[in-house]
Amino acid sequence: MKSRLTRNRLRTILFYLLMLAAGVGGYLLINQRGEILFGQNMPPVDPAQAKESVNQLLHVLLALATVIVTARAVGAIFKLLKQPPVIGEVIGGILLGPSFLGTMAPEWYAYILPPSAAPFLGVIAQLGVIFYMFVVGLELDLKVLRKSGHATLAISHASILVPFLLGSGLALWIYPTMSTPDISFTAFSLFLGVSMSVTAFPVLARILTDRGIQKSRMGAIALTCAAVDDVTAWCLLAFVVSIVQAKVGGAILTLALTAVYIAMMFLIGGPVIRRLVPWLETWDELTEGGIAIFFVGLLISALATEFIGIHAIFGAFLLGAITPHDSRVAKELTDRIEDLVRIMFLPAFFAFTGMRTQISLVSTQEEWMLCGVIILVATVGKFGGTLVAAKLTGLNWRDSSALGILMNTRGLVELIVLNLGLDLKVISPQLFTMLVIMALVTTFATAPILELITRNHPWEKNPS
Fold first, then answer.
1. Coil, strand or helix: which one is 323?
2. For the chain, which has fewer Cβ within 10 Å, the N-terminal or C-terminal residue?
3. What are the b/e assignments for 309-326, b being 16+ CB within 10 Å?
């Protein structure tokens, strides 16, 4: 038995060696024949260029790995501090930028995040934001917006109007020093007003969920107000972008095309998706073909809004918003996309934001005072507008204060708005840094101040 196994093993080894010898010999014969042939006149390959391409890929892969590890680590630390992990992820991105790593270890910074990798990281970040806004749209319940009472609508719009006016008024002071002659005061003041008005619906929802009050009456009011805020803020931002990217006549055309596109999405796209979803749900699970349909639709919608002149993120958000919120398709799409977006794409966006945030640009006492004024104006506008409106609609002072603090949460949504403003050159890198600091401070302050205001507060459950 053993001798038979030994013979079989020797036969296999012999066959393997003969096969290798035949392969090598065959190629040598082919190569000998090919050496006498002449190829077409093609441009010579530049070895240096080919090596640079490989090096760029190496740097991008290394940057992504570093970004993901840093984001998860710092996010975990902030979670232990009972803060939204997204704040830690944003700070992780800033730590990898020129403000910290570029100063403390410039050689490491130049190797991990060289300037040549920035465009690739930027593309990944933009794709991440597009998919993230699609997920936000999927999680948005339009039925809640339709059923929101006049009181909730009044609170939400007051929380936008007051900071918007204060931000626009602040523009009178800082426009001469924080803008360029290429940007009109109208565009600058509108953008600054919008940046003061944003509420981060996903971060707010995370804070409420962590505290277990998302189903309380206050939680329901806060989530509804934030959802209305989100939709209103994106509409305002689309309006501002259309003005920035075109002259007056072009802006009117852009706004008209935007209105037509939104109407088509709700009047044509909505019914089509509402018929498509039940058909896709006849399968046991969402198939690759079904996912491909939505991805193609996502890219076409994003491309359409980019072509119109607003931004690809609006098209992605709109497609998500018209998809039935409570359908199995929406839930499966969210489950399949969300992890990849949150673990890889969004940290890339945070790192890209960190590379553009230079804390050293805010160095003098006057500049830090201006940064403090921006934080104060943003907080007073958002908190004050919400507080007064909530009190006038019947809430008590403590609930009104808690709602004002919650609506002052900005987080990731604010960073998306600020990056868009920097890309359009509406704001300078220095003002961009100040506004990033404002977004971090207002978001970081939400959880501890909310805890202080609502300590031992008996939350009233939402009857619905």
1. coil
2. N
3. bbbbbbbbbbbbbbbbbe
Q: Which of the residues in the chain have pLDDT under 50?
A: 45, 50-51, 248, 462-464
Q: Which CATH class name applies to 90-453? A: mainly alpha
| 286 C-beta neighbours (distance < 10 Å), count | 20
Residue spans of alpha helices (H) in 246-287: 248-264, 270-280
pTM check: above 0.85: no
CB proximity list for 222: less than 8 A, separation 6 or greater: 204, 208, 403, 406, 407
The token pair at 76 is 């975990």
| 425 phi-psi bin (left φ>0, alpha ψ -120 to 50, beta other) | left
Residue 33's DSSP bridge partners are: none
Ordered by start, the domain boundaries in the chain are 90-453
Structure tokens, 243: 């003005």
State how far the Cα of 299 lies from the Cα of 78, in Å rounded to an integer: 34
CB 329 within 8 A of CB 280: yes
